[in-house]
Design a protein that fits this description.
Elements (H helix, E strand, L loop, with lengths): L1 H23 L6 H6 L14 H5 L6 E3 L15 E3 L13 H8 L8 H12 L7 H8 L1 H23 L2 E3 L5 E3 L4 H9 L6 H32 L7 H12 L9 H27 L18 H10 L7 H6 L7 H27 L13 H18 L1 H16 L19 H20 L3 H29 L5 H38 L1
Antiparallel strand pairs: 1-2, 3-4
Helix pairs in contact: 5-14, 6-7, 6-12, 6-14, 7-12, 7-14, 7-18, 8-9, 8-18, 9-10, 9-15, 9-16, 9-17, 9-18, 10-17, 11-14, 11-15, 12-18, 12-19, 18-19
Family: Belongs to the amino acid/polyamine transporter 2 family.
Organism: Calcarius ornatus
Pfam families: Aa_trans
Length: about 525
C-alpha cells in the first residue's frame, strides 16, 4: 500500500511539473510558432492549451503512468492518460533522451527580436493585399485609420499583458494568469467564472474559421484572375482548392506544414517588395488627385474592418510574453513592431492605390499585368493553401476541447477512443468543417466583405473592446485618469466602428448571397 501511495504521489508531482513547464514554454519558442502565426487570426489563435501539443508534434499515443518499482503493484485503473497536453507521467520505457527533452521544454526562451519577428509575421500577413481597397473607399481617412489602428492595437496589447499581473502581499508584481481566456474568466468571476473564457473561445473559433474561408476565397480569386482564358469559374477553382485541402481533416501534427509555411512567409515578403517595386516604376502616372478627404459612407465601414483585421495579434500575446527571456522588453518590442507595420502598410496601400486609383481591386495583385500576375498569384495561392491548416487545426482543437474533451462539462461524448485515435464521426465533423469553408467561399466569394465582417466582429472585439474592458475591470483602482480615459475612448470608438462595419458588411454579404443564389 505504501508503495502504491508513493507511486501515486510521484505521478501527481510529475504531472504538475510537466503542466507547469507547458504553461511557461510554448510553440512560440520554436520555428513552429513563427509559421503558425504568419497570418492574422492564426495565430491567433492558438490558446495556451495548444502550446505544449504543437511543440511535441501533437503526440497521438497513449503514455502509461509510471508503475511501481519491481515487484510493486500495477497501476490502478485511471492511471492511463491520453497525453494530448503532455501533463501526465512518462512511461517507464521512455528513453533518457525523451525524458531530458520533456524536462527541458520549460527552458527555451525567445529574445525580444524573435518575439518581434513573430508579431511582425502575424500583422504583416497576406491579408495586407486588401488594404489598397480600403484606401479606395476612404482616401486619406483610410491612411489615418491605418495609423490609428496601429496605435490602438499596440496600446491594447500592452494593457492586455498588464491584466496578467497582480500585486502580491509583499508588494511585488507577479504573473497570476497565463492566457486571454484566464483574463476573461477572472473578469466574470465569481458569478460567472467560465463565461468570459467561453466568449473568447467563440470569438477565436469565428475568427479562425473565417480565416480559413478567406484562404479558400483568395485561392479561387487569384487562380481565376491568373488564367481568365481557361473555362474554369472562380467557384470551380475554389472547389479544386478545397479538394487539395481536404486531407487537413486527417492532420495529427503541423510539423511538416510549419516548415513549408515559414518559407511561404519569406516568399510573401518578396512578393510585397515586387508589388511595391512595380508601383514605384509607374510613379510618373500616380493619380494623387484621386486621394481625397472623403469617404464612401456605404463601403468605408467595411474598410474599417479590413484594416482592423490586418492588425489582429492579441490572442497569442500572453503566451508570447510569457516565453520571452526578458518580459520587460515586451513594451519596446510592441512599439517598434507596430511602428514598422504602420509604415509598411501605409506605404503599400498608398502606392498601390496611386498606381491603379479607381481600378483598384479587392486583391491588389489582380491589378498586375498578366505577364507577372500569374507567377505572383501562384505563389500567393501556394502560401494560402499551406497556411490553411494552421487556423483550421487551431479551430478544431478549440472545438474539440470545448465540446468533446472538457470533462464533465463537455456537451458531447469524447471524439477520441480509448486508444487515442480519432473516432470516425469525429473525422466526419472535421471533413464537414472543411466543406463548410468551401460552401461559404462559393456563396460569398467576396474577399473584402468577408475580411471586413471578420475584422468588425471578432477583430474589433479581441483587439479593441475586450482588452479595454478587462483593463478597467481588473485594474481600475490603480489606473491613472488618462488610462481610464483612453480605455473608455477605445471601448466607445471601437464599439461604434465594430457595429457600423458589421452591419454594412453583413448587408453586403446578404446581397451577394442572394445574387449568387439567383445565379
Amino acid at each position: 500500500m505504501a508503495t502504491l501511495l508513493r507511486s501515486k504521489l510521484s505521478n501527481v508531482a510529475t504531472s504538475v511539473s510537466h503542466k507547469s513547464q507547458a504553461k511557461m514554454s510554448g510553440m512560440f519558442a520554436r520555428m513552429g510558432f513563427q509559421a503558425a502565426t504568419d497570418e492574422e487570426a492564426v495565430g491567433f489563435a492558438h490558446c495556451d492549451d495548444l502550446d505544449m501539443e504543437h511543440r511535441q508534434g501533437l503526440q497521438m499515443d497513449i503514455l502509461k503512468s509510471e508503475g511501481s518499482e519491481e515487484g510493486g503493484e500495477p497501476p490502478l485503473e485511471g492511471d492511463i492518460h491520453y497525453q494530448r497536453d503532455g501533463t501526465g507521467p512518462l512511461p517507464p520505457s521512455a528513453s533518457k533522451e525523451a525524458c531530458s527533452e520533456l524536462s527541458g521544454q520549460g527552458k527555451p526562451k525567445i529574445t525580444a527580436w524573435e518575439a518581434g519577428w513573430n508579431v511582425t509575421n502575424a500583422i504583416q500577413g497576406m491579408f495586407v493585399l486588401g488594404l489598397p481597397y480600403a484606401i479606395l473607399h476612404g482616401g486619406y481617412l483610410g491612411l489615418f485609420l491605418i495609423i490609428f489602428a496601429a496605435v490602438v492595437c499596440c496600446y491594447t496589447g500592452k494593457i492586455l499583458i498588464a491584466c496578467l499581473y497582480e500585486e502580491n502581499e509583499d508588494g511585488e508584481i507577479v504573473r497570476v494568469r497565463d492566457s486571454y481566456v484566464d483574463i476573461a474568466n477572472a473578469c466574470c468571476a465569481p458569478r460567472f467564472p467560465t463565461l468570459g473564457g467561453r466568449i473568447v473561445n467563440v470569438a477565436q473559433i469565428i475568427e479562425l474559421v473565417m480565416t480559413c474561408i478567406l484562404y479558400v476565397v483568395v485561392s479561387g480569386n487569384l487562380m481565376y484572375n491568373s488564367f481568365p482564358n481557361l473555362p474554369v469559374s472562380q467557384k470551380s477553382w475554389s472547389i479544386i482548392a478545397t479538394a487539395v485541402l481536404l486531407p487537413c481533416a486527417f492532420l495529427k501534427n503541423l510539423k511538416a506544414v510549419s516548415k513549408f509555411s515559414l518559407l511561404c512567409t519569406l516568399a510573401h515578403f518578396v512578393i510585397n517588395i515586387l508589388v511595391i517595386a512595380y508601383c514605384l516604376s509607374r510613379a510618373r502616372d500616380w493619380a494623387w488627385e484621386k486621394v481625397k478627404f472623403y469617404i464612401d459612407v456605404k463601403k468605408f465601414p467595411i474598410s474599417i474592418g479590413i484594416i482592423v483585421f490586418s492588425y489582429t495579434s492579441q490572442i497569442f500575446l500572453p503566451s508570447l510574453e510569457g516565453n520571452m527571456q526578458n518580459p520587460k522588453e515586451f513594451h519596446c518590442m510592441m512599439n517598434w513592431t507596430h511602428i514598422a507595420a504602420c509604415i509598411l502598410k501605409g506605404l503599400f496601400a498608398l502606392v498601390a492605390y496611386l498606381t491603379w486609383a479607381d481600378e483598384t481591386k479587392e486583391v491588389i495583385t489582380d491589378n498586375l499585368p498578366s505577364t507577372i500576375r500569374a507567377v505572383v498569384n501562384i505563389f500567393l495561392v501556394a502560401k494560402a493553401l499551406l497556411s490553411y491548416p494552421l487556423p483550421f487545426f487551431a479551430a478544431v482543437e478549440v472545438l474539440e476541447r470545448s465540446l468533446f474533451q472538457d470533462g464533465n462539462r463537455a456537451f458531447f461524448p469524447n471524439c477520441y477512443g480509448g486508444d487515442g485515435r480519432l473516432k470516425s464521426w469525429g473525422l466526419t465533423l472535421r471533413c464537414a468543417l472543411v466543406v463548410f469553408t468551401l460552401l461559404m467561399a462559393i456563396y460569398v466569394p467576396h474577399f473584402a466583405l468577408l475580411m471586413g465582417l471578420t475584422g468588425s466582429l471578432t477583430g474589433a472585439g479581441l483587439c479593441f473592446l475586450l482588452p479595454s474592458l478587462f483593463h478597467l475591470k481588473l485594474l481600475w483602482r490603480k489606473l491613472l485618469w488618462h488610462h481610464v480615459f483612453f480605455d473608455v475612448a477605445i471601448f466607445v470608438i471601437g464599439g461604434i466602428c465594430s457595429i457600423s462595419g458589421f452591419i454594412h458588411s453583413l448587408e453586403g454579404l446578404i446581397e451577394a448571397f442572394r445574387t449568387n443564389a439567383e445565379d
